[in-house]
Amino acid sequence: MIRVQNLSKKFADNIVLNGIDFEVEHGEIVVIIGPSGTGKSTLLRCLNYLEIPTSGMIEIAGVKVDSATATATQITNLRKKSSFVFQNYSLFSNKTALQNVAESLITVWKEPKSAALKHAETILRQVGLSEKINQYPSQLSGGQQQRVGIARAMAAKGEVILFDEPTSSLDPEWVDEVLAVMKQLAVQKQTMIIVTHEMQFAREVANRVIFMEGGNIVEQGTPKQIFENPQHQRTKEFVGRSA
Ligand code: ADP
Ligand code: MG
């Protein structure tokens, strides 16, 4: 469902992504691990064209964009195919949980407002926040805010949800409830690409783990292969440190 070919990104002279190739199947849960500064966030951001690749081709659910020939329409279409869950939630602070989730239903998907609010309420129920729909982000715990963030990504109806360290900003007490919502999405066969340091979660939930370093995919495989029998020296070191 997702195909990335020869994806490169430079910031000035800094080569952050160095000709990345990979594919993701429908319903697959891919976890990306690797040291910080390795290009994991940049990779996710390029998939959504939040960051414009320096070169390379990205195809998601039939929408294909080559950075050399990308048009505004292609980029708009590609952006609709994925949705983002950010480390820092990035909710609208002046909107309630319900309004945050309804936003894209109204503006992107043109649902009538009353239908969008009903739909948003249903999604918030799925992430366990029925009681909190009229609260503003500042009135919610970190875990609740991030569950709104996930609900908002669900509402965006992307074929794939991209998670960039979704639990890294959370107090430890809120991590499990966010991971539980992600596990529930995994059971529903929601395609997901997840950058995380939660190795236990990766072992349990990922179909595939990608180890990245220095703008390259060093190694990828099942969680068992990557965590128990890594082939590459750098993977061994990283996984050994994180265990
Ligand atoms: P990771 O998510 O693996 O920690 P990032 O993708 O955030 O890595 O960053 C990879 C490299 O790209 C880092 O060296 C970072 O400083 C650089 N970088 C990321 N975003 C920008 C930007 N907007 N401008 C300049 N350099 C950037
Ligand atoms: Mg990052």
From TrEMBL:
Residues 2-239 form the ABC transporter domain. GO terms for cellular component: plasma membrane. Keywords: ATP-binding, Nucleotide-binding, Transport. InterPro entries: AAA+_ATPase, ABC_ATPase_HisP-typ, ABC_transporter-like_ATP-bd, ABC_transporter-like_CS, MetN_ABC_transporter-like, P-loop_NTPase. The keyword Transport applies. Signal peptide: none annotated. It is a peripheral membrane protein. Pfam families: ABC_tran (PF00005). Belongs to the ABC transporter superfamily. This is Amino acid ABC transporter ATP-binding protein, PAAT family. The lineage of its organism: Bacteria, Pseudomonadati, Pseudomonadota, Gammaproteobacteria, Alteromonadales.
